[in-house]
Amino acid sequence: MDINTLVGLLLGTFFIILAIMLGESGIQPENLLLFWNAPSVLIVFGGTISTLFIRYTIKDTFGVFGIVKHTFFFNIPNAPEVIKEFVQLAQIARKDGLLALERVTIEDPFMSKGINYCVDGAETDQIKGILMKEIQYMKARHEAGMNVLKAIEVSAPAFGMIGTLVGLVNMLANMSDPKSIGPAMAVAILTTLYGAVIANLFAIPLKDKLEDHSGSEFDLKLLMIEGIVGINRGENPRMLEEALYSFVSPSERESLQMNS
């Protein structure tokens, strides 16, 4: 689990709530009621969800929950450990042949699939082509998820502004009734607040986190493809290790060398 995402969301929410509750005489929980307005919620949340249905299919719209979950629960193998595993596989293949890899247990599904192609005697270019298509489709799925969060990022503040205009119209239309001015102003102000919080505390950070995760996974799978292709070509394990070093940062490279 990516604890940073959870901590960041909780801290952001906590500080906003704390700021709302702080009054002149200290923390006052009843201040939270001042920032709850049902019409504002309907305009911002309802409007934002409506635009998702317009922009995307029902599957993609409800898929946003899975997208958000992916930002919390993201687990890919450590690159140095993957390199170490490829070196071991290359040593086995060089000593006992590619068929010997059939008896090796490989946990990562993508890596296992590539090694199985090698065992089956597929051509190197064919293996690389199939695996490249797979990671391209993976990237396209991730981009679709990021687009949903981008839509929320744009729509929430926009409906906040719409709510502000609605509140101002109601206020101006009922200037003769002082009692109606307060609720109308609440709608006008709180919709903007809701839209800004949704966009800046949730949609934008989660989109950026998903983009970072997607880039890390894409890079790791490129590393795996290079390792699989190298094994299929019968490259020297040491030379393959050096080639895979180019995919990791100097600090990770140093960690791998210290543990080898």
Report a brief summary of the structure:
The protein is an all-alpha fold and 260 residues long. It has two domains: 1-35; 37-259, no CATH class.
Description:
- The chain is mostly helical.
- It has 2 domains: 1-35; 37-259, no CATH class.
- It has helices spanning 3-21, 31-34, 38-55, 58-62, 64-72, 79-96, 109-119, 124-173, 178-233, 237-245, 250-259; strands at residues 22-23, 26-27.
- Strands 1-2 form a two-stranded antiparallel ribbon.
- The two termini are 27 Å apart.
- The model has no long low-confidence stretch (mean pLDDT 87).
Topology:
Layout: H1 3-21, E1 22-23, E2 26-27, H2 31-34, H3 38-55, H4 58-62, H5 64-72, H6 79-96, H7 109-119, H8 124-173, H9 178-233, H10 237-245, H11 250-259
Antiparallel strand pairs: 1-2
Number of domains as seen in the coordinates: 2
Largest sheet: 2 strands, antiparallel
For the largest sheet, list the strands in their spatial order. 1-2
H-E string: HEEHHHHHHHHHH
